Amino acid sequence: MPKEAGWFCPVGTKKGFMNNILALIDCNNFFASCEKLFRADLEGRPVVVLSSNDGCVVARSNEAKALGIPMGAPAWQYRDLFKSQGIVQFSANFELYGDISERITNLLTTITPHIEIYSVDESFLDLSELDIEDYNAWGRQVRDLVLRYIGVPVSIGIAPSKTLCKLAADHPKKLPGLAGALSLLDSDVRKTYLKKTEIKDIWGVGWKLRPRLQAEGIYTALDLAQLSPKRAQQLMGIHGRQMVAELNGLNCHDLQKTHKPQAMIMRGRQFGEDTSQLHVVEAAVASLTASAAHHLRRERQLARQSVVLLSTNRNKPGYRRVTEAIKLMTPTADTGTICSQLVKRLQATFNRNLSYHRADVLLYDFVPETSMQTALFGNVNLLESDKSQSRMQTMDAVNIRFGRKSLHFAAEGLSAAWRPKKLLRSPRYTSAWTELPEVKTV
Q1: Architecture of the domain made up of 30-96
Q2: Alpha helix (H) ranges present in 109-237?
Q3: How far apart are CA 118 and CA 124, in angstroms?
Q4: What is the C-alpha to C-alpha distance for residues 225 and 232, in angstroms, rounded to an integer?
Q5: Domain 264-413 bears CATH identifier 3.40.50.720
Q6: Distances from the Cα of 59 to the Cαs of 47, 49, 95, 111, 399, in angstroms?
Q7: pLDDT classification of 3: cutoffs 50, 70, 90
């Protein structure tokens, strides 16, 4: 379509209008579905997964949704309902969910290598080079494949743009007759489902944009698709122009086939119990730093700055937030180097009169590990940096071979009192030998 028509999209148009064919594989109620994988007795029963310290609902099975339990619901407020309705509760088991997610991704790469892992439970596939006659039938076959080999139900949306894929994947969750898949490649079918989709359910329309659009008389995805590109940009900026173009079948967001390095890495946890003890906070900071630094090494990056944030309980009087920052003279991904400097800063300013509720560690200002520059005044010790990288590579190799945390820094073991309570966690069936199911024969 020519630029003069108003549909010019500044990104992702190399293949032209309607030449892209994408699919979104979206796992249904992913965390709850993972919990049901190894528990046949939970079939048809309401299940909820709770956040850190079993505080809020972060995932619900269809049965739990039908009982009116909202996402983010505080568990204590619904305790009576959980009991009266026989709702099964689980503490979040992220190690299990991550492993199941990886298995699904590995299965999808056997279909096509052109894949973008969008989140732990969603992946985009590029189908442009696949010979597919009936896309709805193809989607149902993929759904059956994932269900057969992994056991997790998925919904599949097929369309020429990511926004339409997200929209298409939502409808099979509500309409069993679609058998888990919906293609919006046909313009008439697309128009029908755009009309059925409320504005709040469109990818990219948040709670801030919804009132603004409704004030313009836009209540459905079809209304938004028919909005002029110029007006869309006036209301929502370039993001709005792209959204309208995507709803009309023009792909504005290319598939990210290669991983884009993060600009910052943060790890944080709410403590299992509030504490005023320095050694407990030190253990928390050490563990969070270890996790962040490990991710930094996987990104093949080095950090030049780091921040630790401690906060008291915001729901109690006298809320306080303490921030301590460090600048690393030599960019590094060494857990010990970063942790020791953060802890040293905390020790100098630690207030024992405060009861800390949460800790966060942030790494940022990155440089690639292969292109670290020397400093004008000799502050960068290249020899020590090389030793540090070798030390961390050895540590990571040991943990890959013998299991996570087989080798760790002593500061991480100073206390376990800070760790979030997970009283209802299920076994890590697929990633911990000691938690494999046991079968007894008589």
Answers
A1: 3-Layer(aba) Sandwich (3.40)
A2: 135-149, 162-174, 187-196, 209-215, 221-225, 229-236
A3: 7
A4: 10
A5: no
A6: 8, 5, 16, 28, 30
A7: very low
Cα separation, 198 vs 193, whole angstroms: 10
Number of residues in the chain: 442
On the question of a common fold for 30-96 and 264-413, the answer reads no
Identify the pLDDT of residue 262.
84
Sheet holding 88-91, edge to edge: 57-60, 47-50, 88-91
d(CA 266, CA 291): 9
Residue entry with tokens 């619900």: 60
pLDDT digits (tens, 9 = 90+) for 211-266: 999 999 999 999 999 999 999 999 999 999 999 999 999 999 888 866 677 889 99
Burial letters for 407-416: b for 16+ Cβ neighbours within 10 Å, e otherwise? ebbebbebbe
Query: Does the domain at residues 3-27+101-247 carry the CATH identifier 1.20.1740.10?
Result: no
Query: Domain map of the chain by residue range?
Result: 3-27+101-247, 30-96, 264-413
Yes or no: say if 221 and 247 are a contact pair by the CB < 8 Å rule: yes
Kindly state the average pLDDT of the residues 297-308. Answer: 94
Global pTM? 0.83
Q: How is residue 287 written in tokens?
A: 């563990």
d(CA 12, CA 255): 9
